[in-house]
Amino acid sequence: MARKCSISGKGPQFGNNVSHSHKKTRKKWSVNIITKRIYVPEEDRWVRVKVSTQMLRTIQKKGLLATLRDNGLTLKQVT
To answer: Between 52 and which of 5, 24, 47, 59 could a Cys-Cys bridge form, CB atoms 3.0 to 4.6 Å apart?
Structure first.
């Protein structure tokens, strides 16, 4: 499974490592993705979601359903 946030769609970024002599080699920056169980009080159940830690902070602030609504998703699309 890809290392991609299921809510924001954030994935790895690619670029160059540049040495002192300006020799360039390819580099990959991975996203901090975790699998988290989140309780949804509106539906009285737990949901397992793969999210980035930045999106997890947003979920803790707004709630899962409000965050999904802001990103144009439903609960069924994420799980």
So the answer is: 5
63: exposed, middle or buried (C-beta count within 10 Å: 0-12, 13-18, 19+)?
Answer: middle
DSSP letter for 78, please: H
Residue type, 7: I
Q: What fold characterizes domain 13-72?
A: Ribosomal Protein L24e; Chain: T; (2.30.170)
Q: Give dist(CA 31, CA 21) in Å, integer.
A: 29
The pLDDT tens digits of the residues spanning 14-28 come to 999 999 999 999 999
SS3 state of residue 54: helix
